[in-house]
Structures are given as structure tokens and as C-alpha cells.
Amino acid sequence: MLPQFRIGAAVRVTRNIRNDGTYPGVARGELLVPRGSVGYVRDVGTFLQDQIIYTVFFLDQDRMVGCREEELMDAASHWVETRFECRDRVTPTRRLAVQGEVVAEPGAVGEILRVVRDAPTGPAYQVRFPGHTLQVPEHALAALAAEVPAVTDEDVERFYHENPERFRRDETRTVRHLLITINDDFPENTRQRAWARAEKLTGKLAADPRGFAAAAERHSECPSALHGGLVGRVPRGQLHEELDAALFEMAAGEVRGPVETAMGLHVLLCETIHPPDVAPLDDELRERIRGALQEQRARQVQRDRARIGQGGESHEPSGVG
């Protein structure tokens, strides 16, 4: 990763920089440098979670402050003052839709990934909402209400342990497959010859499943051949009906085939059977729960505001295409 700015470069900070507890003599959370301020790079520092850290001297504030690359822009670049900046948390002021489908309601919690200052209709933002990243005009966003309580790790863990049924997973199976297509335009892929090849491979691999990945790389006509035929961990109902029926009758380590589908002839290896369980509380699930709880709280604040401001009537804004 190469730094975007060199030592001595004039840069502009694009978001308010507050003390995170590492700046001496200043209270935690106090504003150090307001967004829009111009400074000069004094040092290109270490990597922090794959990000370059710059030491920047801001003349007006007479302060040397560490800034992430995403927080800086070339000082000579066009600057438009905006209400929000990268990493700010926002909520839509109206329904946001893509091709007529509503994908984010007022109260949904989004994080700004990028500021689009030169959008034709004024400042806009690339905002990550759960399941979607959208470009949203500034007038369609509001700051996440300060009164929305932050979701803590304890909140996440409590929700997880109190709602195990929400995180139950049905039986799944890790499967590899080998595909031979049927195409009478090619002599080696006529129905008769394709069946003969598939049956021969099935017999050989049933006797020694350890060679399945190598055989898939060599013989399979599916892109998964690049990964030894690995399809992955699948629940019942995800594959073609014929494959699904065969796979969920197989024992772990069993090879079965040929199984014919519209794609051609398949040889299957049921690599592992994963019994029903509860999904572990890993980092990905933690963030999903945190996002859902934060959105739930933001929606409640939005509803409370609507009741107070409109005599108990909630307002549903029109969509933004």
C-alpha cells in the first residue's frame, strides 16, 4: 500500500478530528481540528488496520495531529462544505428505493463510506445500510439522533443468549462435485461417452475419495474445478433438486454418481455432515446483531419524534429512486 500524500504535501482534513484519548493535555472527545482545515504532512506513519497514518501540522490550530488517509484530501482540490463526512452515522429522512423496491426506511442506520462533493445536484454520499450501499443526496439524510442509545457488547451478547432460536442453523453438508456436460456437437461429450466417463470416475473415486479434488481439477467442466470441485457448505434446498435429493441421503465421505441435471452429469462427494446447531457469536454475527439493534433503537426515536411533532400521526416520506 503506497501513501497518497508525501511529506510536505498540503492536505485538507475532511472531518472533525476529536481527541480519542491519545492527545495530551486535552479532554477526551474535545475538538482538535475542524473539518476543512489545511495542514502539512510532517510524517507518514505506521499502518493501523491496513490504513496509513499521517502526522499533519495544522497551522491555524498550532497542532500536530495523526490522521487516517481517508480523512484527508489534496488541499488544492475543489472543496465543498458538507453536513456529513466519511464514517459519520446517518439515517434517511424518507424511504430510499432502488428500482421501486424500498431498501432503507427512516430510522435505518447507515455509515458514510464516501463523500461525493461534485454530484450534479449538490453533495451526496455513498452510504452503507444493512444489505445495501447507496448513493444518497444530502437532503435525504439526517444525523443519527444523539439520543439514540449506543448498542454495547453486553446488549449484543444478551440478545444472542436470550434469542437462540433466531440463530439456529439446519443441517448442512460440505460438498464437492465434478461435472461432465452432455453436448452431441463434441464426440467426447455425446450422451453415451459422457455417461461412460462419469461412471468410470464415480467408481474410481468411490474406491478412494481422497483423490476427488485432483480429479475435479482435471476432469470437471464446472468453474468450481479451480477449487477442487468445492461447492461449499450448503443447506437442504439450495442445490438442483436432483443433487439435493442425492446429497442429503449420503454418508460423510461417500461418493455418488452420476446424477443428471439440466447442466449435465455430476459426481458428488459428501465431504462433511454438519448437524443442526446454533451459529457461533463470531465477529460477523456480532456486527449483524449490533446493526439490527441500533436500527431498532433509531426507528423508535424516529417514531417518538413523529408522534410528538404530528400529534401522534407518523409520516411516511416518498421514495428516492
From TrEMBL:
Catalytic activity: [protein]-peptidylproline (omega=180) = [protein]-peptidylproline (omega=0)
Enzyme class, first EC level, given as a word: isomerase
Record-listed E.C. numbers: 5.2.1.8
Domain spans labelled PpiC: 170-272
GO MF annotation: an example: peptidyl-prolyl cis-trans isomerase activity
Region (Disordered), start-end ranges: 293-321
Residues spanning the membrane: none
UniProt KW Mitochondrion keyword: no
Biased composition (Basic and acidic residues): 293-307
Source species, domain of life: Bacteria
One Pfam family it belongs to: Rotamase
Keywords: Isomerase, Nitrogen fixation, Rotamase, Signal
Entry's Gene Ontology BP terms: nitrogen fixation
PROSITE patterns cross-referenced by the UniProt entry: PPIC_PPIASE_1, PPIC_PPIASE_2
Family: Belongs to the PpiC/parvulin rotamase family.
Protein name as it appears in the record: peptidylprolyl isomerase
Organism: Halorhodospira halophila (strain DSM 244 / SL1) (Ectothiorhodospira halophila (strain DSM 244 / SL1))
